[in-house]
């Protein structure tokens, strides 16, 4: 699972959970793959992200080196920043581990890079 | 036994490893899937040359995702079948996938996506595979959470196989209830094989639905071409085609020459009566 997905993913489908965001990450295996850099996409997606959540997620898996905690104005022109954001968003992948719901503490296992968000009958709203 | 996959087993069971393998080895399935995805992207009307973040509902082995990548978009997929997603990971897709059941809701933050597509997945929602499943409720949960996960001028295009008219009604009514505008576009409605259903939903304001392929007007055009050919062959023999304006005018001319009482030619000659008659 890439961090861009983590930035969008919630556990609000659980019964009794209101926002279910952000999910905490417990990673046991992290992989870095190379992905083509697309500066246009990165600068388009950044305003949509919750940057603080992204930074904390990157920090919690030890990939926040050089990543600023806040977005500067005119980030579109800073290609160094865009490359770092690209790396964190698309290249770092969590292979094995857990996602933890901040409200209910429910764990969603990640195996082979796929988070399992399936609920049991009792958990469906 | 019915041949529809939905009647055979729940999706997470039906799309097992054997079925999943078909989606990477069978070139016919792959071609059809990519054609339908192309058509979905066409119906999405995304801004040109802008990379978007799209949601692929029922992404399966990522065949549709690959087409999205080719069009320069980033995508996140959700599917209920583990075996299909494993194949997707094997195929080294650029997008990302999540194992989730669409009937339980779309587990994404509000405003995440610029659009969503779904190829041959929506019909599974009509199933009640577990005792707790209520299709109407699941449809509503799906549409309302999907509505939330989209940005405000987004579109969703579902290609799907409805079983009957009432399923279509149920789908559109639940989608409208969740806040969507839109409707069903049927490509090639007069063909048994090429006929394809697309549910096109919009989040922001009602806009005209895109035009379906192979509908009446195009058929009429084809018919005209056929007609023209027939006419040409008749004309070669020196007589205009019967019941056409040319034929009528010629007939009147002939009657005049014979000295018979004939009404003068006007702009109404040979024209169809209006519907009021």
What does this molecule look like?
The complex is a heterodimer of chains A (125) and B (277). Chain A is an alpha+beta fold and 125 residues long. Chain A has four helices and four strands, in the order αβαααβββ. In chain A, a hairpin with a 6-residue loop joins strand 2 and strand 3 (107-111). The longest helix of chain A is centred in the C-terminal third of the chain and has 13 residues, at 79-91. The longest helix of chain B has 21 residues, at 216-236. Chain B folds into two domains: 5-213, Vaccinia Virus protein VP39 (Rossmann fold, 3-Layer(aba) Sandwich), CATH 3.40.50; 217-257, no CATH class. By secondary structure, chain B is α/β, with parallel strands linked by helices. Chain B is elongated, with a radius of gyration of 26 Å. Chain A binds chain B through residues 1-2, 4-5, 7-13, 21, 35-36, 38, 40-41, 44-45, 48, 50, 90, 112-119, 121, 124-125, and chain B through 50-53, 72, 74, 76, 78, 80, 82, 85-86, 89, 94, 96-101, 104-109, 111-113, 130-132, 141, 145, 149, 151. Chain B: Residues 230-277 are annotated as: Disordered. Chain B: Residues 55-130 form the Methyltransferase type domain. Chain B: InterPro entries: Bud23-like, Bud23_C, Methyltransf_11, SAM-dependent_MTases_sf. Chain B: One of its GO terms (cellular component) is nucleolus.
Write the layout of secondary structure elements.
The complex is a heterodimer of chains A (125) and B (277).
Chain A: H1 3-8, E1 24-32, H2 39-45, H3 51-60, H4 79-91, E2 92-100, E3 107-111, E4 114-115
Antiparallel strand pairs in A: 1-2, 2-3, 3-4
Chain B: H1 11-14, H2 17-25, H3 27-44, E1 53-57, H4 63-70, E2 74-79, H5 82-90, E3 96-99, E4 113-119, H6 135-149, E5 150-160, H7 165-177, E6 181-187, E7 196-202, H8 216-236, H9 245-257
Parallel strand pairs in B: 1-2, 1-4, 2-3, 4-5
Antiparallel strand pairs in B: 5-7, 6-7
Helix pairs in contact in B: 3-4, 6-7
